[in-house]
Amino acid sequence: MNREDHIVHGFKATLVARAIYMLSSALLMFVLARYLLDPNEYGTLYWAIGVLAIIQLFADLGLSRSVARYLSEYRETDPGQVPYLLKTTVATKLVLISFVTYVLLLYHEWIATVLGEPEAVPFLAAGVLYLVAFSFSTFSQVAFQGFNHLGYSAIVQAISGAGRLLFAVGFVLAGLGALGAFFGYIVGYALAGVIGMGILYYGFYRRYDAADEYEDGLSRRLLEYSVPLTATQSANVIDKQIDIVLVGLFLNPAAVAFYTLSKQISDFVLAPAESLGFTISPNFGEQKAAGELEKARRIYETSLTNVLLLYIPAAVGLAIVAGPFLTMIFGTDYAAAVPVLQVLAGFVVLQAITNLTSDSLDYLGRARARAMAKGATAVANFGLNILLIPWIGVVGAAIATVATHTVYVAVNLYVVHTELDLNVVRLARTTGLICAITGVMAVTVLLVTPLVSSLFMLGGAIALGAITWALLAVVSGLVDPGQVRSVIS
Fold first, then answer.
1. For residues 212 and 389, what is the distance between their CA atoms, to the nearest angstrom?
2. Phi, psi of 116 (to 5 degrees)
3. 0.85 cut: is pTM over it?
4. Transmembrane ranges (predicted)?
5. FRET partner for 64 with CA separation of 20 to 30 A, picked from 218, 293, 359, 436?
6. What sign does the CA torsion over 334, 339, 345, 347 have?
7. pLDDT tens for residues 214-251?
8. Confidence of residue 107 (pLDDT cuts 50, 70, 90)
């Protein structure tokens, strides 16, 4: 199987798993928001998850992505070092997790009280279990990425999504409320973590014969490379979660629900871009090591064009139909989320580019540059949130996210350009054509949106926009139907 076929195969596996994960997440989001929890309960649940996502950073410190980078390199050049890399990483993670969960168990009440959400105390107490389950679930996924066996990553991700849906809904129906939904998350991630670590041990660790000795300095380089990744990962999580925490601090759990729901919808839309970025990124490390930067540039430019072709129209369409979509799907209680989702539609395009680019920079050895950019924009995002949320409410959090992420994407693209020497003129011309197609599609959708009065009509408006986009994309030559058929088959 050549590299292009391998990427397509990995993309299909990842996309299918991501589809299962996101569909189960979307169904869970719909059932919880529409039927099982009120906005205050929904907001408290996801506020606690946001706080735990920040705390979880200290239980990993970038080790997962660091070892993935070295697994990608050493499985080709010196396979005997692979068992040592895995043992070092797991041992270090166990120490970190033990320390972080102990501190959380001691101070969970204080954290909830200081951040203004005392009703979240039981969630943070149970967060000890959440951190352990989530940490090993995500570690196994990233390790499989380093081995370039994305099918296993796909399996782990799909199990976590399906498990969360099944157990969260089951526990809520059993009368456990929002806390029951939280325990559903824990069980889903725990199942995925056990299966993922089992596959990693029996399918990979035991398959490699350890070298006579650990390469001198390799463990040090592994830990050193985790430092910029820690900075990047920390900035990334804080960038995504601090706004949720601050909305809860300055406003109320209902506002958290409005903001969280809008972000979850944008995450659902981003599934294909995340799958593509996860698939292609290990190849850049291999190609750089082999001196095949021309192939790397071609893969990246093609992927970026396809992402823009899909997400620029998708973001515009989402902004147009945000009103009827939210009120018809989730009910009028969530009408206040409409302007938030419209602003975050711009974030969809930016995050799609980020999903394609960020991991690729890690495998190209530019983690430090990405870490500096992410750290600076995360600090800026924090400051803008503090300024805008008290001033204009929950929409301010969305504006801060879009503004700071624009700068981050621009820096990422520049760094990729310095590595791969992208054809900027051709990319700019293609982007302009995509924007023109989007303009025609937007006019079409705007004309029919005022007529929407039911879910069926909303689906028809979305379908009309998609058909308009597809026809114009084919006529303009941006989409080759033959290539689409070959990828699908």
1. 58
2. 80, 20
3. no
4. 20-37, 43-63, 84-108, 120-139, 151-176, 182-204, 307-330, 336-357, 378-411, 431-448, 455-479
5. 293
6. negative
7. 888 888 888 888 877 777 677 667 767 788 888 888 88
8. very high
